[in-house]
Amino acid sequence: MKRTSNLLLIVALLGTVAWSAAVPDWSAGSAHDIKAIGAYLMADDVSTAGLAALETALPGQAVACTAGVAGPYGCDDVDLLGLVPLAGLGGALGNDSWGWTSADGQEIAIMGTGRSTAFVDVTDPTTPTVIAQLPNAGGDRDEPDGALWRDVKVNNDHAYIVSERGGGLQIVDLNALVELPADPTRVIAADATWTGGSGAYALDGFHNLVINEETDTAFLVGVDAFNGRGMFIVDIADPLAPAFSGRFDHGLTVHDAQCTIYRGPDTDYNGSYAHGDADGDPSNGTQAELCFTFDEDEINIVDVTDNAQPRIINTLDYVNRNGAGTVGTDNGVTGFYAHQGWLSRNHDFLIWGDELDELNTRVGALTGGTTTYWVELADLDAKDAEGSFNGADVTAYAHDTLATDHNLYVVDDLIFQANYTAGLRVLRYTEDGLRNGELEEVGYFDVDPGVDAPGFSGAWNVYPFFDSGTIVVSTLDEGLFVLDFTGDDG
Fold first, then answer.
1. Which of 4, 9, 265, 427 is most buried, most CB within 10 Å of its CB?
2. Positive/negative CA dihedral, 202, 204, 210, 212
3. pLDDT digits over 107-137, tens only?
4. Separation of alpha carbons 154 and 138, rounded Å
């Protein structure tokens, strides 16, 4: 394996450059990015061995997780159903993924790569089939391996796709797409592309995309034209004709967010009273639309009920709680990069990951572990003397792995995490357990076998929301995994 021998080099690079800083091109065709370098150095593509294992399975059957392995992959209570290698998805490195279910139950996985977005039918999860590919819209801004970052979400049967490399917001009508016979070589065009119009808000490249399906609202974050600051709020009720509806700008980069109708315990925002008025008539209560934004140095709770006038309700100041903190100290733990997170099922906890803590001083000589954070949200307005959440309110949970964590999502009492070299991790929580600092790992699937170390290869994203229970995991270096969690679903 070449991974461990190159780990110190990756750590050294990360000590001198920012998370998305440009670094020299190491070889013809490599992406100009630290994550790409990490994937190239740390990754040994074993998808061929994974496909060979699938070929030995009976038709329609999974490669079962038996005695801790499924083919070449380490596992616990997660079976391998299918795998589409990167070559079948458009080539270059993989990145984000999402999913969509048609009215008649057809399940489609959507995965980004450096050069395209692939649409994969996983209705029969043991025979995932590529329907078509949508090329990157970045044009001459593409690097040799395309756009490392691509993000996709779905609303009203349409896929919305963004990239830092430009090209605007691509929109694909998924109902029309699935009428096409599957053809992995088919290249389609977007049904529409939106760049915000002209003038002050002419937009092009975006790092990320958040959608609240309940309000038909998209939140574009990491907008290149504005140095990544804030969120651009877009009405997508008319799927092919987005309309600008507001902007949130607090002077910081918003890396990711969850935007939702709030249903948590705080009566000021959950509809118990008229929104914004604790003395209002309960019969006229309005639930607030809130965004929980992950802003590198801060986490903010933003009220976007009125898109034209978003306002910050509260802030967890990541910098002020930094320092010598370690797990168990009063000031929480050292934070480096507030990356992404999700609300618990009852909206009473916010759970998130930090993408750089495992690679920085808290971990030191790799003696720490993958860390998941959370804070209880009983009172969204609660502030300390400095006007924000106190770092002591944050709980940090250290896993048994060392890998860098990336994206996580919550389904009922399960947390599904895509943790780079540690692969898919499935954790069970209870509200009382979170208050006591407890999580329970109940399953995993190691898409990057042979290494457990901080760095950027392996699992980028997990989509755990299909009603069938099928789970898809997109990876930087292997492809699209189709998996089944076989443990107790609670």
1. 427
2. positive
3. 999 999 988 999 999 999 999 999 999 998 7
4. 20
Token representation of residue 23:
């670094």
Instruction: Give whole-number Cα distances, 300 to 267, 296, 351, 383, in Å.
Output: 19, 10, 13, 12
Cβ 70 vs Cβ 49: under 8 Å: no
Question: Residue 395: its pLDDT value, please?
Answer: 85
Residues β-bridged to residue 162? 151
Looking at the chain, how many residues does it have? 490
The pair of structure tokens assigned to 17 is 């450059």
Higher pLDDT, 82 or 273: 82
Cα separation, 119 vs 60, whole angstroms: 21
Tell me, what amino acid is at 368?
G
Measure the CA–CA gap between 452 and 421, rounded to whole angstroms: 6
Q: How far apart are CA 262 and CA 338, in angstroms?
A: 21
Residues with Cβ within 8 Å of residue 338, at least 6 apart in sequence: 255, 294, 295, 296, 297, 298, 299, 318, 352, 354
